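Retry 2 of 3 after timeout on previous attempt. Resubmitting structure tokens to design endpoint.
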């Protein structure tokens, strides 16, 4: 297993990039202006995932590396691997790791979840996190931008491919946490169980208290027995379109 290496020459070396911040500037994230950009999903998943002590964690489809950076910020003792297929995204993730001086704890690996057995050993991590593509190949508007297209549509790997890779990597009793559209929650839970990741915790995310759920945060345990805990809903905004108290805490405000 060979991890990618690289050195950033500055926070942004291209006019096509931005440098955005999280947690009051404690994390800085280089992103493409028009390519894939992280959203609130990544922050919510980072806070939702069960991470213990010095767990070894992997993020499948890491993109710009934002989830490993969030986990490193929240859990000072963990070691995290971010696995990503797209070469340009891998380079950007490396720059983000270096920019935030987390080279000792966050590693970036270029790889395909469909061939994970070729690059990583089985049962080698305690936790897996994943924000997988959420649209079927022929549904919705297919974005002409390759970064966005691969991140949103199952054109290179399906939901089952990501969960199967997570099950392969997890030791027995390990946790896998995912964020997915609430409208596809049945597909998510069904696939988790099929791949030996028994759903154990579920939390729905609502933009407003009276609105329908938009996201599902789900976590399963490899080889666990059946019993699903439904957590209280997470509401993002108040009626006057400000972050709720809980969301402010999540964002470090």
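Retry 2 succeeded. Sequence:
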């Amino acid at each position: 297993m060979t991890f990618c290496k690289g050195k950033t020459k500055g926070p942004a070396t291209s006019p096509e990039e931005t440098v955005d911040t999280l947690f009051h500037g404690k994390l800085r994230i280089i992103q493409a202006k028009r390519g894939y950009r992280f959203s609130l999903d990544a922050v919510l998943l980072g806070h939702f995932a069960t991470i213990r002590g010095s767990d070894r964690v992997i993020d499948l489809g890491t993109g710009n590396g934002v989830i490993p950076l969030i986990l490193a910020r929240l859990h000072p003792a963990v070691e995290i691997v971010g696995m990503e297929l797209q070469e340009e995204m891998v380079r950007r993730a490396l720059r983000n790791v270096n920019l935030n001086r987390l080279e000792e704890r966050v590693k970036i690996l270029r790889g395909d979840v469909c061939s994970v057995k070729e690059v990583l050993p089985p049962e080698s991590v305690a936790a897996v996190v994943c924000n997988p593509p959420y649209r079927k190949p022929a549904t919705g508007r297919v974005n002409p931008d390759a970064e966005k297209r691969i991140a949103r549509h199952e054109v290179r790997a399906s939901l089952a491919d990501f969960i199967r890779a997570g099950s392969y990597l997890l030791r027995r009793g390990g946790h896998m946490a995912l964020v997915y559209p609430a409208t596809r929650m049945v597909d998510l839970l069904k696939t988790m169980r099929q791949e030996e990741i028994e759903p154990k915790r579920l939390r729905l995310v609502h933009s407003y208290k009276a609105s329908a759920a938009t996201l599902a945060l789900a976590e399963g345990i490899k080889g666990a027995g059946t019993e699903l805990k439904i957590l209280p809903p997470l509401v993002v905004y108040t009626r006057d379109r400000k972050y709720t108290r809980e969301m402010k805490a999540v964002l470090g405000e």
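Attempt log closed. The chain has a mean pLDDT of 89.
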